[in-house]
User: What shape does this take?
Amino acid sequence: MSRTSRRTHRCGELRVQHVGQRVRLGGWVHRRRDLGGIVFVDLRDRAGIVQVAVGPAAPEDVRRTAGGLTGETVVEVEGEVVARPGNMKNPELATGDVEVHPSKLTVVGLAVTPAIPVARAKGEELPSEELRLKHRHLDLRRPEMQANLVLRHRLLQRARRTLTELEFLEIETPILTKPTPEGARDYLVPSRVHPGEFYALPQSPQIYKQLLMVAGLDRYFQIARCFRDEDLRNDRQPEFTQIDLEASFVGPEDVLGFVEAVLVALWDEAGQQVAGPFPRITWREAMERYGTDKPDLRYELAITDWTTQVGPLGVPFFDAALKNGARVRGLAVKGGGGTLSRKDVDQLAETAKQLGGSGLAWVKRQGEQISGSVGKYFTADTLGALGIGDGDAALIAAGPDRVTSPVLDRVRQEVIRRLGAQPTATHAFAWVVDFPLFEPDPETGKPVFAHHPFTAPHPDDLPLGRKSPFEMRALHYDVVYNGNELGSGSIRITDRQVQYWVFHQLGLSDDEIAKRFGFLIDGLNSGAPPHGGFAIGFDRVVMLLAGAASLRDVIAFPKTTAARALFEGAPAPAHPADLRALHIKVEP
RNA sequence: GGGGCUGUAGCUCAGCUGGUUAGAGUGCCGGUCUGUCACACCGGAGGUCGCGGGUUCGAGCCCCGUCAGCCCCGCCA
Assistant: This one.
């Protein structure tokens, strides 16, 4: 199927079976080796690289053209596929058993010297990320980048197939939509027809997919582009892709089952065998044992509460922190007494400080010797009570959980990295369940929703609502893989009374509810089936399965951390005439 | 919004305690070469040391500011 009117094969497809055939190829000059009497041209296309050998027997014009080829020029070649003699085979090349002896060679797309190299020497560093983004068409020629995009394509198709087989319907929802009252900042699009009014790009198709359930479509999915105007990270882009799904007449088990089916299929597509059901961990346990709601469960190392054991020892570092009913928690690092150097520990303490904590205390036990920043307060017995044996180390943080959890999470990850700890599993999927429904606003202490305001409260916790809303759990689920959050979802509120109760808890008046969420309330009033759904962060999945270091390596045209597109130069100033038409004045 | 790292030849990097003419590899240009595959060998060109200001007899190096890229915190219902 690679045949077109201008070629018979792709370069990288040629094998021994093609020997003797006349072929026509098109591709880019990857490298050229001119030995004088014979010129070798490595010709590259999407499928790979094949060697074209232009020897003394080749026609004069072919030899002349071959002698003058520059890198990255596009040529078309016609010639015979020839088996290479044994000692001239190249086992590092998929096409290495053959080469092409051309009778015609035509330059069809002359290239100037590329700004960044496509063909790199072994071990040569990549060009800077800035240049790779600026000259993206060249960066994307690299086989590694093409492999990432090929994988991305296959994963997309597999997701579509899997959900289609589960009787989900792929339905598109608007890109020009309504600004969201809460949540992330919206990207706004001014309306020309309605002065002073704006569309927003969707942060997710959340409300649309719920309305599709109200409409009776039963099962929906979409490979949905989402937009959030927030600051970027290595694993966060301002526009990103979700595998978004929603289903009717479902409970939590159904939703989790659908998501497991999709993820197992995606991992299978990438050649990784995994199986559901994924283990579950409560949010509370995840925070307690790992200090994060997305724990990397490939490693057993876990946080322990040492408050009762350490409290009576009179350590000033801890006593200062313990005044406000806080806790002492830490990590018992088996063998850490020997393997964690003083430098390691100091750097871990520095990391802890940067996260806003008071720092990290540590104790090492090596034979009779007990050392460390708080070592003099401990004996072998007191350490033994913490599970610190001979040759072990304890890394200890004290304070309120909101400080110690992120610190110990980070320290745990660093310890695992520095010790080169052996994982107990290659693929550690897990569901994080029983998230809180509300969380306190850090400034006012009033309830704000932990997810979105349509997440159903856990039915068992409804009686709690009146007196202790923060104790209420939500029917909300995160799927976590090797310390990465892959997605989240929930059962939605379909009871009008519950929905109003939640909005009231958040401090919204009936007027505000009607104004902001009127169309959803209308939906709930018009016969809403029980429904729930999920969204999988697709870019992140591709990144992990491709083994890529950054989201930018699995997106064809990504943005920089300053949300700029270096290739096309977006954003850019608008023409004054366009601004006038949009009724917009820009203040400098 | 805050913190950190980086910015020197087309590309990747070195550049000592501030010292005279800023280097290497690769790419590029020219030449030799009939079995290379990172071809080899010979020769050559190539620099706004991100930008602006300051300190100094003298700045790639020190100071201040600024821009860009990357990483982190805040933020991301």
Observations:
- Chain A has a mean pLDDT of 91.
- The longest strand of chain A covers residues 22-34.
- Chain A is about 30% helix and 25% strand.
